[in-house]
Amino acid sequence: MVIDDSNTIRRSAENFLVKAGCEAILAEDGFDALSKIADYQPDVVFVDIMMPRLDGYQTCALIKKNPRFKVTPVVMLSSKDGLFDRARGRIAGAVEYLTKPFTGESLLDAVARHAARRSIG
Q1: Residue 113 maps to which CATH number?
Q2: pTM of the entire predicted model
């Protein structure tokens, strides 16, 4: 699942994922994502930090509070790359932090690392 208020980022991520044989679920903000996550039960969630209504930290924390999705890996996406931002992502429950603009390789590497860990765990 890719949660980002930028249509360009969502479509780029979708292209990378689909070309690699993954199913991509797209959400344009945290509320949209929370309504879709129960239906699709994604293996990995990528969430932008800077979004209207619910930001990425709040969205991640809400996903992690749900017992069904507590083990679902959440990867933060942001153009902000400070130590504070990374720490805040960890506190919210994120397992990793990718800086925008991300590459297809970095996105797929994160999927490989975290989807495999989830299926094992």
Answers
A1: 3.40.50.2300
A2: 0.93
